[in-house]
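Mods, move this if it's the wrong board.
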Amino acid sequence: LPVAGERNVLITSALPYVNNVPHLGNIIGCVLSADTFARYSRLRRWNTLFVCGTDEYGTATETRALQEGLSPRELCDRYHALHADIYTWFRISFDHFGRTTTPQQTRIAQDIFQRLLARGFLLQDTLEQLRCESCGRYLADRFVEGTCPFCAYAEARGDQCDRCGKLINAVELQCKLCRGTPVVTPTQHLFLDLPKLEGQLEAWLERTWAAGEWTANARHITRTWLRDGLKPRCITRDLTWGTPVPLDGFRDKVFYVWFDAPIGYLSITATYTEHWERWWKNPQQ
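Not the wrong board. Structure tokens:
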């Protein structure tokens, strides 16, 4: 835990996605630099905590599980163990290697959601989504595929062909699961009201940029987003594999993985220690 009067260093590295086998590029681009800094911090006798873990929710997991004839949970269990073994073999010096499919993740993600809701930072809107009536489910892009009507590419998916780049009418494709034709159906979703946060965010950024802790590239990208104006961002999906949305009218949905996954850094720390907030909400130390 953080110690008063000492240099306390919390290190995280990007959470590797669970549905494949890590290779050298993943290790070099993801965990190696963090591992190097963790070793340096320990040599300096700084109080250091280095955490990481597998990112396990989302449609990519559902797709891979279907391909392998497993449930999403079985697939995640298999690949989490495989990831952990590989990082151990490479002697990556994690203090804790966790995962995002835990009770801690559900509790913390839902708590953040409830706080946003209570403060008026969420809104509802309707999206047009593909639905397969035969399967009785809404279809993410990964679950819609077929032959592109423009270039005959056999593995076109979603609403755009990856080969020729042309937009495709989704009903010209098929459900990957049953080969049925999807229909466009309206469905209600929740959005993070980013425009309402824009003023607070800009003020915070000016303070942190003045401290000189951001790279020029990070500042440039962030300024570009703000210059164009922030837009509401959908944070729910019509899926079953994910953190449940704790709100009446939306309990058959889960959180979008990019709302959910970054919270994994907090929840993985929480699986390491019940006093995780002393690492994440303790700027004085």
